[in-house]
Each structure stands twice: as C-alpha cells, then as structure tokens.
Amino acid sequence: MGKATVIPFGPQHPVLPEPLHLDLVVQDETVIDCLPQIGFIHRGLEKLVEKRDYNQFIYVAERICGICAMGHSLGYAETVEELMGVEVPKRAEYLRVIWHELSRIHSHLLWLGLAADAFGFESLFMHCWRLRERVLDLFEKTTGGRVILSVVKVGGVVRDIDGAMLREIVAVLEGLEAEYATIVSTLLTDASIKNRTVGVGVISHEEALDLSMVGPFARASAVNYDCRMLGRGAYGDLSDFQPILDTQGDCYARIKVRCSEVLQSIAIIKELVAKIPTGDIAVDVKGSPADGSQASNVLEQPRGECYYYARGNGSKNLERMRMRTPTSQNLAGMVAALKGCDLADVNMIILTIDPCVSCTER
Amino acid sequence: MGYASRSPWVIHYDGSSCNGCDIEVLATLCPGFDGERFGVVNTGNPKHADIFLVTGSVNEQNIDVVRQIYDQMVEPKVVVACGICACSGGVFHDCYNVIGGVDQAIPVDVYAPGCAVRPETLIDAIVAGVKVLDEKEAALKEQKRAAKKER
Fold first, then answer.
1. Mutation target among A15, A16, A20, A41 for the B interface, most CBs of B within 10 A
2. Among candidates A12, A123, A20, which has minimal Cα distance to A359?
3. Per the structure, how many domains does chain B have?
4. Total beta-carbon pairs less than 8 A apart between chain A and chain B
5. Which of A189, A167, A177 is nearest to A276 (CA)?
6. Which residues form the domain of B40?
7. pLDDT tens-digit profile of A226-275?
8. Burial letters for B108-138: b for 16+ Cβ neighbours within 10 Å, e otherwise?
9. Where does the pLDDT of residue B116 fall: very low under 50, low under 70, confident under 90, or very high at 90 and above?
10. Which of A296, A299, A356, B116 falls 20 to 30 Å from A192 in CA-CA distance?
11. Which option is the CATH number for A42-333: 1.20.1250.20, 3.20.20.70, 1.10.645.10, 3.40.50.300?
12. Quick one: pLDDT at residue A343?
C-alpha cells in the first residue's frame, strides 16, 4: 500500500459546471476519503426576505438556481399561499405543473448530456443538448424566458397558455420522444458506457435510507419516495403515478431512472393538457401573512425533494424563509459513494448525483 | 485578424451565479447556437484560454479563485462578464455575501447583461471580445518591437 495523498478537486474543474471543492484522500489510485468544501456560491439570499416583500421575493426565490428556477418559484408560491390561506384556481395549478414537468425534462436532458460528456462521449452530449433546446424554445414561446421564466406569482400564474399552444407543446414533445428513444438506447446499451457505469459508486438501499437521500439518486437505490405521489396540486388529478425505481444503486441505475423520468414527465404533460379545465389563472392576494403563522411544503424538484418553510410576522416581509434543497441532502450520499472508488471514476460519481451547487449554497 | 481571434478558446468559471448563465454559456457552444462552428472552443485549462467568461458576482470565498484563473491566463486575454450578476451583482447586489460585479476582482473588457444572459448576447459579447483581443495582441507586438529596437 502506498502513502495516502490528498488531491484537490475543483473549484474550477472541466467536469464541473459549478464550483465545488473536494479534498480527495487517495491511496494507490483508490479514494479512501473525501472532504467536500462548499461556500463558493453562497449569496445569503434567505436573508433577502427582510428587504423584499413576499411578492417580490418570488423573483429572488427562482434565482436560487437557474436549472430548477421553475420549481423554486412554484415551491415558494405554494408555501406562501398556504401561509395566507389562498386558494389557487385549478387552471393555474395545471399550468404550473405543465411548466414544472417541462423544466424536469430540460433538467434531465441537460444532466444526461453532462453525464455523457463526463465519460467522454461528446457527440451524445451535443445530441442531448440539441433536444433540450426544443424544450427551451417552448419556454420562450409560452413565457418569454429561456431559463428564468418568472411566470408564477403568489395566487396563480402570470400568463395563460392557449389551446393552440398547448397542442403545440404536445406535438413538440411527441417529436422529441422519437429522437429521445435513440439517445436512450445508446445510453443504456452502449458497451463503453456500461463499462464506465455498471457497479460504480454503489449505494445500497439501507445506506440510501440512512443518509436520507432524495430524488433519482435515492430512487436508483429502490427508495420508494417521490413528492409527486403525495398528489398536491394538479398531481392529484393524474390517473396514476408510480415513482420510477431501480434496485442496483450504481451509476448505471441512476442514468436509467433519469432516462425513464423524462418519458414519465412527457406522459404527465400529455395527460394534463387533455384534462386542463378552463377558468381564471390567478386570484388577487391582499394583506400580509399573520404574525406567527407558519407553513411548510415539499416539492419534487428534478434533483429530488425540496423542503420549504415560511414564517410570517404580520408585515409584508416574511420573518423567515428556509429551503432545504435536494443536493444538500445528497452530498452525504455522494461522499459515501466516493469512498473506495477509483480516482478515474470520481467525476462520473459526482455527476450521477446531479449536484446543483447553487441550490445547495444559496 | 490574429491567430487567437480566428478561434478564440474560452474558459468558463461560475462565480456565484444561479446556474442560469452557466447553462446559457454552455448552450451558446452547443447545437442551437453552435458557437463552436465559429471556432469558439471551451477549455478547462486557463493556460489554453483567450477569453475568460465569468458568470455570477464575486464573494469572499471565490474572489481569489477568479483572480488566480485570470493570472494564469496567458497574454493577450479578455474578460467577459456574462449576466447581470457578473456585471453589477444584479438581483443579489444587497446580499450580505456579495461583493459586487466581477470588475471588483479583475479588469473586465466586455459586459454582457441579462438575467439570464441570452446566447445571442453572449455571441455578441464574444465577437466584441475578439476585437479587444486583436487590439491587445497588436499592442503586445508593438511593445516587443520597441523593446527590440532599444536593444
């Protein structure tokens, strides 16, 4: 056995789109320990609730993370609505979920591309991002923004999607589905990809529960938990919802789970477009949250369960707003998965948890 | 046009951005906008890069990292501040852990505003950056020539 050495990884590293620093303790090319260091993107935006009122803060909340922007604005709005006892019109709930599921498709396609890039499959990376552009075009057509949508407000949504546009969304997704099938078959059957991912970074079911992992990372280890199955908002009207699970718990299983979740999201959007009711898209919200009132909420982000907590103090500004984001939950799992792996597999394992550092640090 | 400006290699660092601008930087180089077809290549190595694309504002933790990457880059080099946070701090300007735009740490040549910055704006910014790159290269050559003459 050779001497243990520490190899710094990041914050600027080709595989990471975001700064995350890891001290990898390595012995004979095997990682024996890993110490993550975060704080490069910390902005302190939870404290901004003192300076922005609850209507303005939604624009800060959706900038927690540019990939899950839609999810954060939705989660924040639902929490404040619960705090103030606001009933959102049914059509608004449907529209929110349609946008949220679209953002899940774009997030997973983005991730599949980054994963392909991590094992050196650059053309597949480009193909995933080519498909992702179509979802972004849908965002641009329906909201005007590509990344930050600013479409949710407390009490409903800002814009409606008309029938023709809804049909176009379904048509675009159907076109995407066919091309996506080729990408998935490459991702799941290519021998070189399997060599890199099967049996790498295994997390057992017990470990996943112990480390309270969330999202596709946990579902790949057969943790049967997806916030969408709680049936909040328009999710309650779905005829059937089953979380997508896998039992292997390795990198390959995580790729498989995310591949299937894209198809699941497409199916959800199709069903909701068929069922969407007519009516208002927003209600007027007046007044401010009562002193001492509290509300909490969970939402399934592309990366897993995100928990929101809000407390009012009688003024327009919230007393406290707290989010617990999926990646901060999953960091412990990532460290566990890294222990004992080869140094060359480190970037693959880091990517398969789909780290979103700006969510984690806020 | 100089050698570097025919195919400017870019390095990207995420200051404290929300990812929105980062994925737009990558989207600029990917199909759809396809910056690579004009020779804009993404690299992870500061020594290889001509243009430094910074997203997000600077804070106590990352200000040294931004400076280190800038210092490692070889002259001539251009810095593009991508997105409103990199330009001025943007929506987070009054957060306690935000110092301000990237120009607080290193000299910025081109500002590309937007939240998130649009790929079209980024392409414009890179084209503007290429001009600055040419000017800097010409100035460097002029300096070398003058130094030779003196000898």
1. A41
2. A20
3. 1
4. 122
5. A167
6. 3-150
7. 888 887 778 878 788 888 888 888 888 888 898 899 999 999 998 989 88
8. bbbbbbbbbbbbebbbebbebbbebbbebbe
9. confident
10. A356
11. 1.10.645.10
12. 82
A73-115: pLDDT as tens digits: 988 998 988 888 888 888 888 999 999 999 999 999 988 888 8
Domain ranges of chain A: 42-333
Q: CA-CA-CA-CA torsion for A204, A206, A210, A213, nearest 10 degrees?
A: 50
Distance of CA A263 to the CA centre of its chain: 16
> How close A150 gets to chain B, by Cα (Å)?
11
Residue B111: what pLDDT?
A: 92
User: In which residue are the tokens 């806020």 written?
Assistant: A362
Contact B16 A14 (CB under 8 A): no
- B-contacting residues in A 133-172 (Cβ below 8 Å): 133, 136, 145-148
> In this structure, which amino acid lies at residue A307?
Y
Q: Are B53 and B80 in contact (CB under 8 A)?
A: yes
pLDDT tens for residues A276-334?
888 888 888 887 887 888 888 888 888 888 899 988 888 888 888 888 888 888 888 88
Q: Which residues fall within 8 angstroms of residue B124, CB to CB, at 6 or more apart? A: B112
Please give the mean pLDDT across all residues of chain B: 86
